[in-house]
Amino acid sequence: MKKFALVDCNNFYVSCERAFNPSLNDKPVIVLSNNDGCAIARSEEAKRYIGMGAPIFKHMDIVKEHNIHLYSSNYTLYADMSHRVKEVLSQFSPNIESYSIDESFLSLSGLKNIDLNQFGIEMREKVLQWTGIPTSVGIGPTKTLAKIANKLAKKNKMCQGVLDITNHPRINDFLASVEVDDVWGVGWQYSKLLKRNGIRTALDLRDINETWIRKKMTVKGLRTVLELRGISCIELEETVQDKKQIVNSRSFGKDLDKYQDVSEAIASYASRAAEKLRKQQSICGHISVWIQTNGFKDTPQYSNSVSCRLPEPTSYTPLLVKYALHLLKKIYKSGYKYKKAGVMLMDLVPAGNTQFNLFTKIDHSRNEKLMEAFDKINSSWGSQTIRSAASGFTRPWAMKRSKISRRYTTEWNEIIMV
Amino acid sequence: MKVTEIGILNSTKPFDLPLTSIKIPCGTGFPSPADDYIEERLDLNKLLIEHPAATFYARVEGDSMIDAGIYHDDIMIIDKAKEAKHQNVVVAWINGEFTVKTYYIDPRLGKVFLVPRNDKYLPQEVTPEMDFTIWGVVTYNIHKL
Predict the structure, then answer these.
(1) Interface of B with A in 87-126 (CB under 8 A)
(2) Does the predicted interface ipTM exceed a cut of 0.85?
(3) Which of the residues B101, B111, B120, B144 is marked catalytic?
(4) A18: buried, middle or exposed (CB in 10 Å: 19+, 13-18, 0-12)?
(5) Mind giving me the DSSP string for A95-157?
(6) How many C-beta neighbours within 10 Å does residue A113 have?
(7) Phi, psi (rounded to 5 degrees) for A393
């Protein structure tokens, strides 16, 4: 029989903030989305006051009344902490799927004659001690059941953060306590359909008629049902596939109405996208740019996008910035206040796997070396040490992150003080 | 947004191997007689960091540990994977702030103390009602001369 564990970091972004600032323990804490817009992570203490995704400016009175601590999202810190958690987990199993920034599936099939609950407890304790991040561990014979076990481990204080659901005598009670929309793989549309047909819990779904489910929810739905029965159908995905497109898009810190400012933002996004492109050792053949005004405001609205095919695939920052700005000129209209812009690179192919155009006079090896040096300098001296002049210096468009914590693990100037 | 495992000591790419410069294409000339002797350059990460995933840094403020060779503005290397033992130098969280002190367990008295290493300051007893945790064990201190 196969065995899977799902390890999920509890309120991950909040836990990262607490790891470096223990005074936040036991206090209500909320981490906000880019531009300090909405609540995207809430500590247990904050959950009853503020809903997930709630726009925080509408609830400032509640924030003040309950002394809720607000933080801007510090993705540099969260990404590093996520990496550390996964490094610790990799000591427990050679087969890990990094499912999201705060969740990992581990294959435990190789473990024989081991108390998996105890194994989960050790895993949890080690991650907590090494990184300061609390986790919940769910274990089961399929990924879908491991996910359910994880949810229950988190909810039920008795579990102390770990639940092995495999051959559990109370499995039916457990499944009956999970709503069908909370089952992994059951989307919002299907959950409506299921509920209309009287299928409300994971238990109902497990005991459903196979022909019916295949007809109504295709083979994917059947797969979920089999997984609930303990038959593993979804394998671990260990290799991260190269992305098929790279998007860099953000809201500006404030609305912009000058071409110069918008063009700086576009240049900077294109430059960042190009870095990501080189990191996965790809080149792109297509680029697209879009801009939009603030749809939530009562001002004239405009949005547009445009794309073009490149004469030949590239990952060379100066060229991509040049094309991005060229495209921006085509769609930019003055007289509007812009809120958001983005750059997308498409038609990605592995570098070194392409036919170059005979008729362009680009010195490829020179450009490659230049970009290699560029990336190296930015990785050892800090991102943005060298950047395209087109991306500007004052950066009025930069994201609003007024309550950001320090980058405790990636900048020498921002480490903790003792 | 750069993400390295531990600060910017560049631990993911710990060394610049001189290997690429001595690659010799097949069939042209002889291999360099030095090939067999190429070794990795010395790497401070390897020397100073036992558990990269659990290693963090902190800058020192104050003079309470000068007799242990830890001075204001130094950078300490902290290993959270290590269990704090008697007489380890630790970073602790106590009553709302971080502090670096020597961890002192007195089994006869059944008491725990945080001991400064500077005659100007007195040891502090850790009592159960205090908000106290050991954040990590200090393994090295980086001091500029």
Answers:
(1) 91, 93, 96, 98-100
(2) no
(3) B101
(4) buried
(5) -EEEEETTEEEEE-TT--S--HHHHHHHHHHHHHHHH---EEEEEESSHHHHHHHHHHHHH-G
(6) 4
(7) -120, -40
Q: Does B56 touch chain A (CB under 8 A)?
A: yes
Under DSSP, the state recorded for A217 is H
A359: Cα separation from own chain's centroid: 41
**C-alpha span between A312 and A295 (Å, rounded):** 36
Q: Which residues pair with A106 in a beta bridge?
A: A5, A96
- A32 neighbors A72 (Cβ within 8 angstroms): yes
pLDDT tens-place string over residues B93-121: 999 999 999 999 999 999 999 999 999 99
Q: Whole-prediction pTM value? A: 0.75
Q: What is the pLDDT of residues B4-46, one digit of tens each?
A: 233 333 333 333 333 333 343 444 455 566 656 666 678 898 8
List average pLDDT for each run of 10 residues in chain A, which is 418 residues long. Answer: 95 97 96 84 95 89 96 88 92 88 92 92 97 98 97 91 94 95 89 93 95 90 95 83 76 87 92 90 87 81 82 89 93 90 84 61 73 77 71 71 85 88
CA dist A146 and A329 (Å) reads: 51
**Residue A25 identity (one-letter amino acid):** N
C-alpha angle with apex B79: B76 to B85, nearest 5 degrees? Answer: 105
CB of B14 less than 8 A from some CB of A: no
- Strand order, beta sheet including A69-72: A39-42, A29-32, A69-72
Pairing status of strand A162-164 against strand A135-140: parallel
